[in-house]
Amino acid sequence: MSEVTEDAFDFGRTRLETLTDGIFAIAMTVLVLTLKPPDLPDSATNQQVMDTLAKMVPNFIAFVASFFTLGMFWATHHAAFRYLTRTDRVIVWLNMSFLLMVSIVPFTTGLYAGDVDNTIVNTVFGANLILMGLLNYAMWAHARARGYVYKEISEEARHFSTRRILTAPAIAAIAMVASMIQPRFAEVIYFSMVPLFMVTVKPFALPWAKKGGNISK
After folding, report:
1. What span, in angstroms and rounded, lies between the C-alpha atoms of 154 and 173?
2. CB–CB of 179/123 below 8 Å?
3. For 149, phi and psi rounded to 5 degrees?
């Protein structure tokens, strides 16, 4: 009888993806709490309402940028997991750490929306995104090293997935550096993160997609 080790146990990709989807859905929903309705008197004039909403523009920008940034991280995570044949205990705990960073995004977004001109706030927000990206990459790198990626996936697609996963933390790092020079530069970079990411996206058809089926193991 062959010995069964804990490392050899397949935790199941589907359950891990289900948990991940749920955490992302909650984090993206909770983000709206960073937009606190203004406390206006019943007799407020149209001009007062417009002035109050104008002051909330940074909050709206932070909310929209964070919402789509989370969507970007979800997309890269989902795309990478489609290539995996299995998971293991290391991937599970890396994924848990990744989800911890995801769940913190509403908090760091609230900080950022409260003072976009503060370098420390910019750094905290950027560090949150960088850690998310690096943990996402660590899962992918571990899966590649352990041979958990479908053999049918071309090397070009593997390298592309690596570049795509690392795009977000690289942009966040640039924003952190820019915030030390001028915090407003970081705001522009954070808001353009998703468009810059989309420029790097090049569709790769899964090798079994043309057959209309999925490989199951």
Report:
1. 29
2. yes
3. -100, 140
Find out whether 102 and 63 touch, Cβ atoms under 8 Å.
Answer: no
Run means of pLDDT, 10 residues per run, the chain, 217 residues:
45 83 94 77 74 76 87 90 88 95 93 77 89 94 89 76 84 86 80 76 46 38
Residues 175 and 122: beta-carbon distance below 8 Å: yes
Distance between CA 154 and CA 152 in Å, rounded? 6
Write the DSSP symbol of residue 56. T
Closest listed residue to residue 73, CA positions, set 55, 98, 91: 98
List helix spans (H) across the chain. Answer: 13-30, 46-55, 57-82, 89-114, 119-145, 155-181, 183-191, 193-200
Strand partners, 149: 84
Complete DSSP assignment for 112-161: HHH-TT-HHHHHHHHHHHHHHHHHHHHHHHHHHHTT-B-TTS-HHHHHHH
**Ramachandran class of 12: left when φ > 0, alpha when ψ lies in -120 to 50, beta otherwise:** left
C-alpha 106/C-alpha 65 separation (Å) is 12
Give this prediction's pTM.
0.79
